[in-house]
Structure formats: C-alpha cells, structure tokens
Write a structure and sequence with these properties.
Bound molecules: nicotinamide-adenine-dinucleotide, 2'deoxy-thymidine-5'-diphospho-alpha-D-glucose
Number of domains: 1
Largest sheet: 7 strands, parallel
CATH class: Alpha Beta
Order of helices and strands: EHEEHEHHEHEEHEEEHEEHEHHH
Helix content: 40-55%
Number of helices: 11
Strand content: 15-25%
Number of strands: 13
CATH superfamily: NAD(P)-binding Rossmann-like Domain
CATH topology: Rossmann fold
Shape: globular
Strand order of the largest sheet: 3-2-1-4-5-6-11
Structural class: alpha/beta
Distance between the termini: 46 Å
Oligomer: single chain
Amino acid sequence: MEYKNIIVTGGAGFIGSNFVHYVAKNHPEVNIMVLDKLTYAGNKENLAGLNPEKVKLVVGDICDAELVDELVSKTDAVIHYAAESHNDNSLKDPSPFIETNIIGTYTLLEACRKHNVRFHHVSTDEVYGDLPLREDLPGHGEGEGEKFTPESRYNPSSPYSSSKASSDLLVKAWVRSFNVQATISNCSNNYGPYQYIEKFIPRQITNVLCGIKPKLYGTGQNVRDWIHTEDHSSAVWTILTKGKIGETYLIGADGEQNNKDVLEMILEAMGQPKDAYDVVKDRPGHDLRYAIDSTKLREELGWKPQFTNFKEGLEDTINWYRDNRSWWEKDKEAVENNYAKNGQ
Ligand code: NAD
Ligand code: DAU
C-alpha cells in the first residue's frame, strides 16, 4: 500500500533525514511532515534543498500528546525514527532515553490507535544484546548463534538498547491488544552522510580532519554489521508499503567488520599510517558482536541492499565530511571535551 501523507519523526536526525531525502527523490508525490524536537542531534540543515511544498518541518516533541494527536489526525502513516540514539550518552544519563524512546513511542502509538493510522517503528539490532565473536563459536560461526533472527531473545545491554527494546514491546502489545496497524524493523549499524560526530565513523573521520588522533575503545575486536543508510531507507520503505502488519523485519547487508579494521580503513583512505590512533577506555558493558540475518526481508518482501561495497561507501562518507566542514566543525570541540572527561 502507498501512502500520500506521512509523518517522519526524527526526520532532522541522521537516518531520518536520509529517509526523507530518499522518499522525496524516489516518491516525489508523497507529502512529508517531519516532526523533530531538534535536540543536539537534529539539524534543520539536513533537510536543505528539499521542495518546501512537499517537505514540512514541525519542531516539536513526540512526548507532547496534544501536538502528536493533532498531527497524526491528518496523516496516513507515521514512520518513527525519533530517539535518543547514543549508547555512551545513555550510560551517563539514561533519563532522556526513557522519556523519548519509551514515553514518546507510547504517545505516538496512542494517537495512531485513536486515528487508525499506519505506524512503522524503526528499531535496532541492539535489542537482542550481543553475539560471541565468530572465532569463539563452534565451527567458527557457521550455524546457531551466528546471527540475530526475528526469533532471537530480547536481551539488551545498555540504557539505550533497553529503552528501544521497551518501545518494541509496546508496539507489539498495541498491535495485539488494540489492532494498531504497525510493523517493526531492527537494523544494524548505519553509516553515511549527516551522522552526528559523536558516533564511531564520523568521530574518527573528523578527528583526522582536525589533526586529532582517532580513539579506539579497548581492543577494537568488537564487531558491527555496517549498512549504508541509503539501504536502510529502501528497506524501511519496502516494509512500510509491503510489510505484513504485526511483523518484525531485520535489516542488514552482511557488513560485519571489527572496529580496528574499520579504523585502519579510514586511516588508510585518509593517507595516514595504519597505527596512528589512541587506544582509550572501553565502554562499560560493551556489546561484542552484532550480525543480522535479513533472509525474511529479502525473501518475503524482495528487498536487496545496493550499497554493499563498504570501502567505497566509506570513501564517499569521508569525502562528505571533508566537503561539509561547516556542518560539523562548530560541534567538534564540545564533543571531544565531553569524551575526554570520560577518558575516551
Ligand atoms: P540521531 O540521534 O541522529 O537522530 C535522532 C533524531 O530524533 C534527532 O533529529 C532528534 O532531534 C530527534 N529527537 C530526539 N528526541 C526527540 C523527541 N523527544 N521528539 C522529537 N524528536 C526527537 O539518531 P539516528 O542514528 O538517526 O537514529 C534514528 C533511529 O534509528 C533511532 O530510533 C535509532 O534507535 C534507530 N537506529 C539507528 C541505527 C544507527 O546505526 N544509527 C541503527 C538502527 C536503528
Ligand atoms: O547496532 C545499531 C546501533 O548502532 C544503533 O542502534 C545506535 O543508535 C548506533 O549509535 C549504533 O550503536 P553503537 O554503539 O554500535 O555505535 P557507535 O558509533 O557508538 O560505536 C560503534 C563501535 O565503535 C562500538 O563498538 C564502540 C566503538 N567506538 C565508538 C566510538 C564513539 C570506538 O571504538 N571509539 C569511539 O570513539
């Protein structure tokens, strides 16, 4: 089913704004209302250049029930990206994570229930906790325990991931008890343009661009399953328009890499020696490995990732940060000071 009027919560953040650009480009007939509080991670500039007749920004909080009710009453679908999204921040102060990720999702679900509006909930693979490293699995990672599947047990590690797990459970309950027309997707680590510079890849790229040494947590053996944000957008659009109500779809592009290897790729692409980084304090409770089995999404809905050349995607991302210095430079000092206070 196609939707003419959609609300994208968190549409001024990293993945949300990439989704807005994706829809504006590939489905220009759709009217998009972005609902975003513009926290430190939200930025109006992420929506620059889009047709103002088709893309409108409402600056507001998803926890504001009155505002949410009014906006939802006039739409056909809500695609819910808004969240506090950074694990390290959640370890310092969990409260905004509980507020936005749980109460915010509840507020949206209640409005969608009242107005019978389609809801897609954007979530994370971190709700499943972590996996052992492949070398520690029997048969070196072939078989059970290799990847997350939609049947994996919820086992979140951090305040961030447990708040996202809570929000997933609210969506499941609202589908079952109130027949809310909702789907859920759990995606792996995204990279690409417009990612706030607190996150691993843009932090290291902008460190090199500022002459600061990149920072690796612990041994760097932790594995993340990288997907280009453009592939995340096409997957969410596919689920929104073709997904079965009540179902969960896992989104991933077979992009497992350990952090040390990713950092070395960044250094090499930026003309630096491979060992030009500092090892810093590890993250408490640091998840070891994520890996997604996206068979259900591929086989049932026919989705396929397009941007699977990680080296090329990384080089494009480096170029984006190089070409858009004014987008990130004003925040760099504060972000690094914050990390430094924590020994990171
Ligand atoms: P982000 O931090 O870059 O952006 C979050 C956006 O939400 C910002 O624009 C912010 O202003 C807005 N926001 C925060 N609180 C709000 C509130 N109370 N009301 C309205 N708007 C609010 O996050 P991101 O990395 O783009 O992640 C977007 C979504 O995707 C999140 O739900 C996250 O859990 C999920 N996700 C992220 C990744 C990843 O790799 N970054 C992977 C899988 C899933
Ligand atoms: O898996 C999906 C999740 O991916 C999303 O739900 C989160 O919103 C998103 O932030 C991301 O979580 P991570 O914690 O994996 O991402 P982050 O960029 O913070 O860190 C990636 C890895 O890099 C992680 O193992 C920690 C490590 N790291 C991070 C930073 C910021 C470093 O080694 N050095 C750093 O400076």
